[in-house]
Amino acid sequence: MSLPPQFLDEIRARVPLSRVIGRKVVWDLRRSNQAKGDWWAPCPFHGEKTASFHVDDQKGFYYCFGCHAKGDALTFLREAEGLGFIEAVQMLASEAGLQMPERDPREVQRADRRSELVAVMEQAARWFRLQLQTGAAQAARDYLARRGLDEAAGEAFGIGFAPDQRQGLFNALRSKGVDQALIVDAGLAAKPDDGGAPFDRFRGRIIFPIRDGRGRCIAFGGRAMDPNARAKYLNSPETVLFDKGRNLYNVGPARAAVARGKPLIVAEGYMDVIALVRAGFEGAVAPLGTAITEDQLRLMWRISPEPVIALDGDEAGLRAAMRLIDLALPMTGPGQALRFAFMPQGQDPDDLIRASGAAAMAGVLDEARPLVDLLWRRETEGRVFDSPERRAALDKALGDAIAKIPDKDTRDHYSAALKNLKWELFGPRRRDGATNRPPPREGWQGRKGQGRDARHLPVQPSEPARASRLSSPQAGEHEAEALIEAMVLAICAVYPELISSVEGHLERLEPQDEERAALVHDLLSGSQSGKGQRALEKIMALPQVIATPFIWKSVPLSEAELRLVNTLEQLSARRAVKREIERAEAEIVGLADEGLTWRVTESGRARQQADHPSLANLSDLGEDSDSRRAFLEAALKNEIWRKPRR
């Protein structure tokens, strides 16, 4: 029906928005300014305790800073009350004391037809309910009893029975004067192709009424009693009243429960919803015989910002979850999230509750995982990433998936979460999962009393490690480079989060010691070897390592990263000087004696320590660095490595 804009504006002007919404919320009067028409309250669309829902009477709009619901009075009545547009206008017009404009006769006819169909559906629901008490329904009652559904449950959910008769319901409705066309249009009967009399769509089934957000019966679901039936569950066909992709089973009561603080739980079937509600999880709903649709997701998010998808613990449940990823990602964002709770293998919520009680179900819900975890599971489960190409393919798949997320902040958080998960998969392994860092290697233990973020430290070094030459304070000068190398490996072992950022440097480290080479391989691959562990014990026994505070005391990761980079730069500079000296020595072969070669070597060392004073802490043996620098400058000035011309 087309309505004049002036009429709608007049309605909005006459009925303050706060009056419409005030019937559903409790205003926060301390925060509200009634004189200015500025109102605040907890949001009626998602269960919250803080007043993040704002109503502006002057502008005629509301907005929730939590779930981002927004609109005017008509929008609110349609979203919160489940009214159609015309119904919402009629309600506001009545409150404003205005007459509705003359309606299009065709629109009137359609609205009247909907009302007639609803009346027929309600009659059918009552008839199905009565049939459950007959002798023909004994097997159905026994089945419900085995599933733990008593009379109270049957009454609460309107459970009924369709006898195995070709025209049982059809004849019952016709006897009450219901037109044959209405019975067929409501989806209760089907007309055969040969033009014969219509026959009941539901026969020999337990019946579950499906109601919209306003509680009106719009469809039925039927569970077959015959194990050989072609379909175990059968729903009404789509009709003027019923669009299975836009509705949810038990949506009205669930919305009310979520408003009282209950979580919204999405199960797979009617029996699961009933079992959940009876166990105290009153915010339970289910899709209607199909995979979750975009419209159903939007409906869920209007009820709760983070529904929990409770899927059966079988392959079908997992496949359903995986299909939902691609549907949800382009729609997810602040106030529109999903969590996934997986039942134990072979069980659905109904099975779990009957076998282990509500506490077991609560435990499964507490373990529900966010959508990002499910995405990771889909892209990694059962796959091996033992080559750069395979890891690159994983990066591309994850990147393509999160690129669908429209909200930038949400995309950034997904990227960060996936980066952490990749680190856990490819980085060094640790035994516990207490922190965001990878679990400690074998032989590592946490410091007592430091809590879950404590630094994991190596055990006391073994005697062979203590006896290592590098652990001696009298280590020779030629071992200074090995000591810097040891410091690099120590930092990487204690702060394994940093390895990914320096992989290239570690690959070029190429230790001469076989055990250290094994340790480098362990750090890069996330594996563990006996040789690598022995190298780590020896390194941690070095006095210089023991005397380094940030190795044994937790510091911010950024500070540890700075130390690691500086140490690598020192090692790189030392090796560069060494290469220069080797080239100089090669040029003066046959001209310079061993003393000159030694002096060139010493000059290189002096220049390095002058340019990098911090290296003196690792390798200075007490010699006068000023004299070294003077010698170096003289050597450079005289170019002593050049051969004299003959």
TrEMBL record:
<dbReference type="InterPro" id="IPR013264">
    <property type="entry name" value="DNAG_N"/>
</dbReference>
<dbReference type="InterPro" id="IPR034151">
    <property type="entry name" value="TOPRIM_DnaG_bac"/>
</dbReference>
<keyword id="KW-0862">Zinc</keyword>
<dbReference type="GO" id="GO:0008270">
    <property type="term" value="F:zinc ion binding"/>
</dbReference>
<keyword id="KW-0479">Metal-binding</keyword>
<comment type="subunit">
    <text>Monomer. Interacts with DnaB.</text>
</comment>
<keyword id="KW-0808">Transferase</keyword>
<feature type="domain" description="Toprim">
    <location>
        <begin position="262"/>
        <end position="344"/>
    </location>
</feature>
<keyword id="KW-0804">Transcription</keyword>
<keyword id="KW-0460">Magnesium</keyword>
<keyword id="KW-0240">DNA-directed RNA polymerase</keyword>
<dbReference type="GO" id="GO:0000428">
    <property type="term" value="C:DNA-directed RNA polymerase complex"/>
</dbReference>
<keyword id="KW-0235">DNA replication</keyword>
<dbReference type="InterPro" id="IPR037068">
    <property type="entry name" value="DNA_primase_core_N_sf"/>
</dbReference>
<keyword id="KW-0639">Primosome</keyword>
<keyword id="KW-0238">DNA-binding</keyword>
<dbReference type="GO" id="GO:0006269">
    <property type="term" value="P:DNA replication, synthesis of primer"/>
</dbReference>
<dbReference type="GO" id="GO:0005737">
    <property type="term" value="C:cytoplasm"/>
</dbReference>
<comment type="function">
    <text>RNA polymerase that catalyzes the synthesis of short RNA molecules used as primers for DNA polymerase during DNA replication.</text>
</comment>
<comment type="similarity">
    <text>Belongs to the DnaG primase family.</text>
</comment>
<keyword id="KW-0548">Nucleotidyltransferase</keyword>
<dbReference type="InterPro" id="IPR002694">
    <property type="entry name" value="Znf_CHC2"/>
</dbReference>
<dbReference type="InterPro" id="IPR036977">
    <property type="entry name" value="DNA_primase_Znf_CHC2"/>
</dbReference>
<dbReference type="Pfam" id="PF13662">
    <property type="entry name" value="Toprim_4"/>
</dbReference>
<feature type="region of interest" description="Disordered">
    <location>
        <begin position="429"/>
        <end position="477"/>
    </location>
</feature>
<keyword id="KW-0863">Zinc-finger</keyword>
<protein>
    <recommendedName>
        <fullName>DNA primase</fullName>
        <ecNumber>2.7.7.101</ecNumber>
    </recommendedName>
</protein>
<feature type="zinc finger region" description="CHC2-type">
    <location>
        <begin position="43"/>
        <end position="67"/>
    </location>
</feature>
<dbReference type="InterPro" id="IPR006171">
    <property type="entry name" value="TOPRIM_dom"/>
</dbReference>
<dbReference type="GO" id="GO:0003899">
    <property type="term" value="F:DNA-directed RNA polymerase activity"/>
</dbReference>
<dbReference type="Pfam" id="PF08275">
    <property type="entry name" value="DNAG_N"/>
</dbReference>
<dbReference type="InterPro" id="IPR006295">
    <property type="entry name" value="DNA_primase_DnaG"/>
</dbReference>
<dbReference type="GO" id="GO:0003677">
    <property type="term" value="F:DNA binding"/>
</dbReference>
<dbReference type="Pfam" id="PF01807">
    <property type="entry name" value="Zn_ribbon_DnaG"/>
</dbReference>
<dbReference type="InterPro" id="IPR030846">
    <property type="entry name" value="DnaG_bac"/>
</dbReference>
<dbReference type="InterPro" id="IPR050219">
    <property type="entry name" value="DnaG_primase"/>
</dbReference>
<dbReference type="GO" id="GO:1990077">
    <property type="term" value="C:primosome complex"/>
</dbReference>
